[in-house]
Automatic annotation (TrEMBL):
One of its GO terms (molecular function) is CDP-diacylglycerol-inositol 3-phosphatidyltransferase activity. Belongs to the CDP-alcohol phosphatidyltransferase class-I family. The chain crosses the membrane at residues 14-36, 147-165, 177-199. It comes from the Eukaryota. GO terms for cellular component: endoplasmic reticulum membrane; Golgi apparatus. It comes from Starmerella bacillaris (Yeast). Keywords: Endoplasmic reticulum, Lipid biosynthesis, Lipid metabolism, Magnesium, Manganese, Membrane, Metal-binding, Phospholipid biosynthesis, Phospholipid metabolism, Transferase, Transmembrane, Transmembrane helix. This is CDP-diacylglycerol--inositol 3-phosphatidyltransferase. It catalyses: a CDP-1,2-diacyl-sn-glycerol + myo-inositol = a 1,2-diacyl-sn-glycero-3-phospho-(1D-myo-inositol) + CMP + H(+). Its cofactor is Mn(2+); Mg(2+). It is found in: Endoplasmic reticulum membrane. Its EC number is 2.7.8.11. It is a multi-pass membrane protein.
Length: 232
């Protein structure tokens, strides 16, 4: 009778999963973007976009290599929320007249994703992308990787466009003017991504509502079981 040795997966092994290594590089690029954010928009934008692009690669690597982990999922979501929030914080300074709007956007983003992550994990789901919902739009968003990537990319590029527009143009725009607004790259980027950015905010609201209902349903089941156990 031969004994088979089962390899033990150590904590260190999980931390060194390829998708998690990609996640660490995302954090590094995000920190570089923060460093250059105030005074060098070109370097900041490159680093920020690289961090966002790698977001699509870590999930693909996790599925391809069979290296999915809750640590990786949390790292991915926390990095997303921190980078977006940091950029919006800069926009609060660049556009003080819209500070309340930006504060609401940050709050919606954080609350929606935290509640969604918590509700899916507490309900026993293996991933925050695998859950039951009556919203076909939200289901499409999480089950179709192309839709997920396009909407998320447009959401980030919208904020990048606002960020770039906050810097004065060193040379006159080459594309002319519309209602006295220079048609710079920043303007075109912001206008073209606005519809999908708006869709992302709507999805955040739907997601938060869905998560709230899921948590309340779980609370109702737990309360019902408690009452039944007392009555017996």
């Amino acid at each position: 009778m031969t004994e088979t040795t089962v390899k033990r997966v150590r904590t260190k092994d999980v931390l060194l999963y390829v998708p998690n290594l990609i996640g660490y590089s995302r954090v590094a690029f995000a920190l570089i973007a923060l460093y250059f954010m105030k005074w060098h928009p070109k370097y900041c934008t490159i680093a920020y976009c690289l961090s966002c692009i790698l977001d699509a690669l870590d999930g693909h690597a996790a599925r391809r290599l069979g290296q999915t982990s809750q640590f990786g999922a949390i790292l991915d979501m926390v990095t997303d929320r921190c980078t977006t929030s940091s950029l919006i914080c800069f926009l609060c300074v660049a556009y003080p007249q819209y500070v309340v709007l930006f504060q609401l956007l940050v709050s919606l983003d954080l609350a929606s994703h935290y509640m969604h992550m918590y509700s899916t994990l507490s309900s026993g789901a293996t991933s925050h992308k695998k859950f039951e919902t009556k919203s076909k739009l939200l289901q499409l968003y999480y089950t179709n990787n192309k839709v997920l990537f396009i909407v998320c990319a447009a959401n980030e590029l919208f904020y990048v466009g606002l960020y770039l527009y906050s810097f004065p143009l060193k040379t006159p725009p080459t594309l002319g003017y519309v209602n006295s607004v220079p048609l710079s790259f920043a303007v075109i980027l912001t206008v073209t991504t606005f519809p999908l950015w708006l869709l992302k905010q709507f999805l955040n609201i739907v997601q938060m509502r869905q998560a709230g209902l899921t948590l309340a349903y779980g609370d109702a089941l737990a309360a019902t079981k408690a009452l039944q156990s007392k009555s017996t």
